[in-house]
Design a protein that fits this description.
alpha/beta; eight-stranded parallel sheet; three-stranded antiparallel sheet
């Protein structure tokens, strides 16, 4: 097997602001695995608050490239376990290689990725949300109006949170989901969530700090809207803990280390009565294609990375008013542009 990789710094169309800060570019790593005349591609964006950079991923992959390449690839789950033990402190890099392994496997089997999963379909045609980053209410309305969309995810965490949603509501009847990115305190959260319900908001992601379990227990018993764990649910070990504190979990491939553990997390969440959101970290079309294939297994979808980025390094993925469509080809159905 042969490995290739390249780091990018992809510009956003607009500066992207959440409660944790603002960024103008999304660093990401693209990898490819070539084996027996077929090539699979994968992606892992770098996220500063998880302390993983593209430089760190490139350094570790460069050092361990020969071990990645020597594995006798037959199917993704065995490969993920091998990578997980080879690079236990770098789940983002494992994710990129795991996605590439699934793409390669789909091509070996001659099937689109979505045909290979064993979980039941929950939502045959889920619509992805489009994210509105934090700004003034006027600017957030302007961003929304740039792209009429059936579902918006709105980033909050300011003193103007309710005014922002009131302003957006004056211009759209679309579904609105709110993501506080852990910015609120529990009493503030309950007051805001109560007001947000009156404004037709569907759900709230990560209202409190990821380690505020006491506050989340208090809030979950009182919230009039479903609460979805994001920062509090990183990988497989976190799913069961979220059961009594949230109504659902946001599974992101990069933070949980790939498609392989994400599928297991989905199964465990269902067994615990938790709903599932598939979320993104501003991936290009390559990482977003993996989410597109997994989307029917989830209740909610947030896979709008290519819509937010000014530059894409993948081709083959299309968006149609909330629908995310991958090419009907084996594997992911996308190509790495400029490999």
């Amino acid at each position: 097997m042969q490995v290739q990789f390249k780091a990018y710094d992809l510009p956003f169309k607009h500066p992207f602001t959440i409660s944790k800060g603002t960024k103008t570019h999304q660093p990401t790593l693209i990898v490819s695995l070539s084996h027996l005349g077929r090539t699979g591609v994968g992606e892992a964006p770098a996220i500063s608050y998880y302390n993983i950079t593209t430089e760190r991923m490139v350094k570790e992959l460069t050092i361990k490239k020969q071990f990645v390449e020597k594995f006798a690839f037959t199917e993704p789950e065995r490969y993920w376990h091998y990578l997980h033990h080879l690079m236990p402190a770098n789940p983002f890099l494992v994710c990129a290689l795991d996605i590439a392994g699934w793409d390669l496997y789909g091509k070996m089997k001659g099937k689109p990725l979505g045909a290979l999963f064993q979980l039941p379909v929950v939502n045959p045609q889920p619509l992805t949300s489009f994210t509105i980053g934090m700004d003034t209410p006027e600017q957030m309305v302007a961003k929304m109006q740039e792209l009429p969309w059936p579902v918006y995810k709105v980033k909050l965490g300011t003193a103007q949170d309710i005014e922002i949603i009131e302003a957006l509501r004056k211009h759209t009847q679309s579904i609105i989901r709110v993501d506080a990115n852990a910015a609120w305190q529990k009493d503030e959260a309950l007051d805001k969530i109560t007001a947000l319900k009156e404004l037709g908001v569907e759900l709230v992601e990560q209202p409190l700090a990821k380690d505020d379990w006491e506050g989340m227990e208090w809030l979950a018993g009182r919230s009039p809207l479903p609460l979805v764990a994001d920062e509090a649910c990183v990988d497989e070990k976190d799913v069961a803990r979220c059961k009594d504190f949230f109504h659902g979990i946001n599974i992101k491939l990069t933070k949980c280390s790939g498609i392989t553990p994400a599928i297991r997390m989905m199964g465990e969440a269902r067994s615990l009565g938790l709903k599932v959101m598939l979320g993104c970290m501003n991936e290009s079309s390559i990482g977003s294609a993996a989410l597109a294939h997994m989307a029917p297994l989830a209740d909610w979808l947030d896979a709008d990375g290519p819509l937010l980025l000014q530059q894409d390094v993948g081709s083959g993925l299309q968006y149609d008013f909330g629908k995310i469509i991958s090419a009907a080809e084996p594997g992911l159905g996308v190509q790495w542009v400029g490999a």
